[in-house]
Amino acid sequence: MGRWALDVAFVWKAVLTLGLVLLYYCFSIGITFYNKWLTKSFHFPLFMTMLHLAVIFLFSALSRALVQCSSHRARVVLSWTDYLRRVAPTALATALDVGLSNWSFLYITVSLYTMTKSSAVLFILIFSLIFKLEELRSALVLVVLLIAGGLFMFTYKSTQFNVEGFALVLGASFIGGIRWTLTQMLLQKAELGLQNPIDTMFHLQPLMFLGLFPLFAIFEGLHLSTSEKIFRFQDTGLLLRVLGSLFLGGILAFGLGFSEFLLVSRTSSLTLSIAGIFKEVCTLLLAAHLLGDQISLLNWLGFALCLSGISLHVALKALHSRGDGGARALKGPGSHPDLELLLRSSRPEEENNEEEEGYFVAQGQQ
């Protein structure tokens, strides 16, 4: 009977993990194809991103209110000093990462975006070394070389290569390295109380919105003000469809962060990292099948080389975590750069018996 109970518990945990991974895939892959689909007809990616940020803020504020009502405990609210000094740099880097990523969809294919954005782990490692969050080891050098070599092979003589789009998404990956390093440093400060992803999203979105606004005003403001799809609309039905499509993207972005939180809280950050690797493969296969993206054998070999570097990075993190006896979480950001949140959850054991510690990087969604 005891053996049967253990088997049932194992199967239930496996089914639950699979369900959470599939939920994460739906939101993560869905928002990638959504962004590409929408930018084909709506050429204002910065405005789209800003509206998504507003929706995420709305849902995170609503979630905080519901949690506060159910737990009868006030949620953390930072002072203006801490908000501007501690949160602003992270919010600005995050806004530029997400904004440039969405902007790149105007010029490049989903496959090139997926491959180039996956190289963000390279910049994360570099900035982790600069800020001494990681120690320089020969294995990390090998990881960097594998990812950089894979990126070169994937883009070499690509028939659908676009310099402007590649520069945008590579710039987003570079800023993403700064973003996740700053986020890790921010969330390690326990006195701020931003360990819960809902609280983090709530505090980041307003400054992200303000950080993107100057770019929006310079590059899209005039064109949007004369666009018949928004400000000079003549067809109310068209306006409602556009706003509905934009609102859907905000829901996907919020769902992505929340699904990542569920996955890592029920399993581990390592599970999320491994799931992220297979998600990249699924995205490329779908892009080739649904969108007709042309991927040569050399491109596939480059992607395999890049994935081997990311897999090595994940394996090193797993060994490092096991070497600590599970007492603390993975030290650096996870291997998947496209996510919307970096979580470090730690609660005192005397307050809550469900103590957990873990990092995960949450994309970009985008």
TrEMBL record:
Q: Please give an example of a GO cellular component term from this record.
A: membrane
Which keywords describe this protein according to UniProt? Membrane, Transmembrane, Transmembrane helix
Give the membrane topology, semicolon-separated if more than one.
Multi-pass membrane protein
Provide the primary localization.
membrane
The UniProt annotation puts the region (Disordered) at 343-366
* A Pfam family per the record: TPT
Q: Which residues cross the membrane?
A: 12-34, 46-67, 112-131, 138-156, 168-187, 207-226, 238-258, 297-316
- Sugar phosphate transporter domain ranges (all copies): 19-312
Q: Does the keyword Membrane apply?
A: yes
Specify the superkingdom. Answer: Eukaryota
**Compartmental location:** Membrane
The family line of this record is: Belongs to the TPT transporter family. SLC35E subfamily.
Function as written in the Swiss-Prot or TrEMBL entry: Putative transporter.
Q: What is this protein called?
A: Solute carrier family 35 member C2 isoform X1
